[in-house]
Amino acid sequence: AARQRTQAIIDPNFRFEDMGVGGLDKEFSSIFRRAFASRIFPPSLVEKLGIPHVKGILLYGPPGTGKTLMARQIGSMLNAQEPKIVNGPEILNKFVGQSEENIRNLFKDAEAEYKEKGEESSLHIIIFDELDAICRQRGGRSDGTGVGDSVVNQLLSKMDGVDQLNNILIIGMTNRLDMIDEALLRPGRLEVHMEISLPDEDGRYQILTIHTARMRDNNIIAEDVDFHELAALTKNYSGAEINGVVKSAASFAFNRHVKVGTLASVTPDVDSMRIQREDFMAALDEVKPSFGVSDDELG
Ligand code: ATP
């Protein structure tokens, strides 16, 4: 299996874009170089190099920029089990004392498989979304319960225990790097940190083409639509917001064909429906970027 994985990744025609993630090629390659080389190359080479596996990475940056997408794709590229995704606030919402139990449970499957198969075990990925929510309460700073404190401690002790287990990878995600407990970021824990920022113009072009792929295949985009123009006009938009723009444009186009109130009686001429430039312009008016816009830009 290790051999197969290597071939997939050194395929010269391979593009991260084809995995449905736009504008993050550099981030992807950097994470692979820093965190996963040792998981992809033959064990004999890894042994010669003497580099330990990276157990955890942290993806940080504004909301809707593709952190979850990226974490999932990393999992599939590494041939991992379907990742377990847990949400910081969710863990804390459970009863006091139950939170630590929840953390321990997350590691159970991986530990059991390792016991049975050792180094032949598949890779288990645990994704902590909104990791900051757990850390925020460490030391009882915000609500005095200290729940976050013991949850972080439990997580730390689990991560340190992973030492003997090569089959677990933890991916933390946050919009607030400054809130993350430093103890979690040390070597041997979430040691590779990668910022996933808002996409630049090329990235936005890629994201637009990804989210309109099916429409383009079905010839639903009118000829006057210029994705380069739209990429230039969507400064400060996140990937999620660009996706929102595409959906909004589609709804404007649809509305031209089927006006509210006619739904029951008229069979719409969907074959002639095209999403036009004007639909995208209306969509840009409707869906605004929420992040990275300075006060004077908002006017
Ligand atoms: P959050 O911090 O809110 O959890 P996130 O960074 O994890 O956000 P995702 O959940 O990965 O963001 O993105 C939400 C959706 O936005 C994706 O399912 C996808 O449709 C779209 N999207 C975001 N970023 C990208 C991208 N770089 N390429 C393609 N689509 C994207």
From TrEMBL:
Cell compartments where the protein resides: Cytoplasm
The parts of the chain that form a coiled coil are: none
The AAA+ ATPase domain, residue ranges: 53-200
Describe its function.
Required for vesicle-mediated transport. Catalyzes the fusion of transport vesicles within the Golgi cisternae. Is also required for transport from the endoplasmic reticulum to the Golgi stack. Seems to function as a fusion protein required for the delivery of cargo proteins to all compartments of the Golgi stack independent of vesicle origin.
User: According to its UniProt record, which protein family does this protein belong to?
Assistant: Belongs to the AAA ATPase family.
| Full protein name | Vesicular-fusion protein SEC18
